[in-house]
Structure formats: structure tokens, C-alpha cells
Amino acid sequence: MEIERKFLIKELPDLSKYDYVDIEQGYLCTHPVVRIRKKNNKYILTYKGSGLMAREEIEAELTKEAYEHLREKIDGHAITKRRYLIPFEPYTIELDVFEGHKKGLNMAEVEFPSVEEANSFVPPEWFGEDVTNDKNYHNSNMI
Amino acid sequence: MEIERKFLIKELPDLSKYDYVDIEQGYLCTHPVVRIRKKNNKYILTYKGSGLMAREEIEAELTKEAYEHLREKIDGHAITKRRYLIPFEPYTIELDVFEGHKKGLNMAEVEFPSVEEANSFVPPEWFGEDVTNDKNYHNSNMI
């Protein structure tokens, strides 16, 4: 079970000092989510059950060839984004800077060990609107 | 981890007294296996890691709509078969009687709690060749 909150970004911080990974992903199905993702040199199949803040999530490894085979079967557009990992003790902010057809969108996710911690989280100044409960900001609705 | 042995069938027993389920399945990918299956009114997504007798297996629930959406994306043919469940103490024989493009093929699988039990299994008289290690009899190679 993954417990997370999502926020739009008011103003990007200086990103030059943070690590990042380049991500490409696509959806074979959106309800429930069956997603393929390329993250650097790793290829992953993900299933996500229903739910917003807390969702069942299963991951399994794919080969590059399997990814490319399934890449031909995705619905709509692939999503490409650069994900920055920003320490924000005791959490890590995952800041997604979108490329491709969603270029201009910036969104942050923070994962929590419990619903209580998620609810009491105080976001940094540069975060904007909380979109945790807005399905439009599910990546699966952005294809 | 699933531990099982597979056999061809020399001669079908009288099947009239056994329970069965009708199965339709297809493959989005075969290496690794990403399979969709309809089993009566249940729709399941399955991932299988590599390996023959023992393979990692992950299952997740699909809706009918998700199944039908993914059904459009399968490789090759869908596989249809009637699966009989035949008690063979302390095991259950799963006997698959294939329909569709594989009509005429009959194959049995038995699942075991350990590799030791799998190796010491004595099959009933009506079983034929042991094809556990023959990849041609993976359903994913029959599409």
C-alpha cells in the first residue's frame, strides 16, 4: 500500500544540486492501472488498484525487449518526465518535471509511512495546490 | 513461487463427474509472461518470472472492461480451454482440455508444496509424457 500526497508547484527551486532520473512510462490499461515504465536502465511493470491517497501497488521486472514490445501497445501518449529527488527531512520529495506533450507541468509527490503523517505534512513554501484527490493529476489521466 | 509438473494425457478418463471452469487467456508479452485470463466471471492479470518447474508468479484483479480492453492487445491467438479439477490425494490434478486453435491437445498440471514432493510424484496410469521441462508446452508458446 502506497500512501502519498501530490502537489502542483508554484515556483521551481534551484534544481542543479539534486539527483534525478529520466522516466518514460505508458499505460496498457488505466482502470485499474497497468503501467510500463523505463527508469534509467530499469524496466518495470506496475499494477495499481483503485483508491487515491492509498492504493495497492504491485511491481514486476521487465526486460528491455519486453518493455519495447509492450510500448507498442500503450493507450494514448507515453509520458516523459525528469524526476528530481529532493531531501525534505524525514521525507523525500519526488519532483516531476514533465517533458513531451505535458511540458510545462511540474508536480511533486511525497510518500508517507502512515495516513496520519500524510495528513499532518506541512509542505515547503514553493509547493502550490494540493491535488492528491484530483484524478486529473493521475499520470494515467494525462495520456 | 509455483512448483508444478506438466504431463500430456494418454487417454482421457470419464470426466462427467468432475468440476470444471472455462478459461480464456491471452499474452501481452511472453518473456516474461504478462497474461490476461478470464475464468468464469473472474478477470486476472498474471506476471510470471523466468524458470520452468518453479517460477515467480504475481496475480492482480482486472475488471471485465479492463480485460476486454487488454484482450485487443494480445499477441497471436487467445487460448481457450476447459479445466477439470480432479482430486488425486493429496493433490489436485488440473486437466486442461483445449478448444479453439489447439483443439485435440489435453494436458495435466499438478502443483506441489515443495520440489521434493514434485520429484517423487507418481502419476496416474492415464498420464502420458512428462513435459514439465519442455517449453513448447508453455501456454505462452502455443499462441
From TrEMBL, chains A, B:
Concerning InterPro entries, the annotation shows: CYTH-like_dom_sf, CYTH_domain, NeuTTM/CthTTM-like
> Which CDD domains does the protein's record reference?
CYTH-like_CthTTM-like (cd07761)
Where, by residue number, is the active site? 27 (proton acceptor)
SUPFAM superfamilies tied to this protein = CYTH-like phosphatases
- Residue stretches making up the CYTH domain: 1-143
Q: Pfam families this protein is in?
A: CYTH
The record's annotation in Gene3D superfamilies points to: Hypothetical Protein Pfu-838710-001
Note the PANTHER family from the entry.
Answer: SLR0698 PROTEIN
Write the protein's name. Answer: CYTH domain-containing protein
Instruction: Provide the species name.
Output: Pseudobutyrivibrio xylanivorans DSM 14809
